[in-house]
Amino acid sequence: MHSPEPATQIARIVAGVPMSNATLYHRIRFLVVDVAVWLELPNQTGSAETVLICRDIELDRARREARVDRVACPADFTPAGGLSGDREVATAQAAAECLRRAGVRQVVADRSLPLLFTDLIRQAGIEVLCDPQLGVQERRQKDAQELAWIQQAQQVTEQAVALACRMIASAKAGPDGVLVQDGQVLTSERVRAAIDHFLLDHGYLNPTCIVAGGAQGADCHENGSGPLRTGEPIIIDVFPRNRQTLYHGDCTRTVVHGECPPAIRRMHQAVREAKAAAIQTAKAGRTGQEVHRQVADVLRRWGYHVG
């Protein structure tokens, strides 16, 4: 593989379905369920032009919403042999033709570029290079819009967790310790359904969240099932995605109905101390591994095993 040409001469490409390709969506901020492609084309001035190629019925909306300089559809870049009747193939053909017309000899792709695009671009005589870090740093650094979306998602997520905590706290314990609410046994499934309904009403998709009581909570990412009991820790972990922005919230809480056992109180104290150590360590330039090490050290001092 040849070395990349000078940066001003290199084109870049990200392609896929914005609904599921986070790198592509991050660049264009335009949500569609069909395949699309983002291209960055060098020009004679040494700067670059960004182009979005998407389905023709999305053109007007894309021109209003997408973060690109120019919007086109595959028909705008029909190669000499014509376009395939397959929508995905046609989009890849158009991407290759767009690059060819721009005089591009070499294009850099991110790690998610579909093999179909790679193959058709190479057939057009253009070299395709892979940069595994393309888009990674940009996604880690959030702009003002992203911060607002994350804050919004987090607020709604915390409201859903608070709803679940109140639901558990307001339940009554039966003679056997099983929680009862509105005359029915309170189960992980009932609490999870309440969370789901709340989030759906607020415009969020909720992957199966965790409501795990007792020993189930000790099994990492066990969803939880069956009756919840008083005096036992119940882990609630909710991580929904906004249906419009695609940004997530994430919140985990441990709640105990009734009297909290001494062993659980001690765990809580250890976690609070570990969290404080993490916050103190989490500074610009530090790594996640360093933060993790500080947390693990605190928990081990308390006598807890860390995997």
Strand coverage percent: 15-25%
Count of DSSP strands: 14
Biggest sheet: strands, sense, closure? 6 strands, mixed
Number of domains: 3
Question: What is the CATH level 1 assignment of the largest domain?
Answer: Alpha Beta
Using the coordinates shown, work out and report the CATH topology of the largest domain. Creatine Amidinohydrolase, Chain A, domain 1
Provide the CATH superfamily of the largest domain: Creatinase/prolidase N-terminal domain
What's the number of helices? 9
Distance between the termini: 41 Å
What is the H-and-E element order?
Answer: EHEEHEHEHEHHEEEHEEEEEHH
Give the helix proportion (percent range): 25-40%
Enumerate the strands of the largest sheet in spatial order, edge to edge or round the barrel.
4-3-2-1-5-6
CATH architectural category of the largest domain: 3-Layer(aba) Sandwich
List the defining traits of the structure above.
alpha+beta; Creatine Amidinohydrolase, Chain A, domain 1; 9 helices; 3 domains; Creatine Amidinohydrolase; 307 residues; three-stranded antiparallel sheet; six-stranded mixed sheet
Explain what you see.
This protein is of the alpha+beta class. The chain has 3 domains: 7-140, Creatinase/prolidase N-terminal domain (Creatine Amidinohydrolase, Chain A, domain 1), CATH 3.40.350.10; 144-260, Alpha-Beta Complex (Creatine Amidinohydrolase), CATH 3.90.230; 263-307. It is 38% helix and 19% strand. The chain contains 9 helices and 14 strands. It has helices spanning 22-28, 59-65, 87-101, 115-123, 136-140, 144-169, 188-201, 262-281, 288-301, and strands spanning 11-16, 36-42, 48-53, 70-72, 106-109, 127-130, 172-173, 179-181, 184-185, 204-205, 210-213, 233-238, 241-242, 251-256. The strands form 4 sheets. A 6-stranded mixed beta sheet has the order 4-3-2-1-5-6, sandwiched between helices. The chain has a 3-stranded antiparallel beta sheet with strand order 7-8-9, with helices on one face. The chain has a 3-stranded antiparallel beta sheet with strand order 11-12-14, covered by helices on one side. Strand 7 (172-173) and strand 8 form a beta hairpin. The longest helix is centred in the middle third of the chain and has 26 residues, at 144-169. The model has no long low-confidence stretch (mean pLDDT 94).
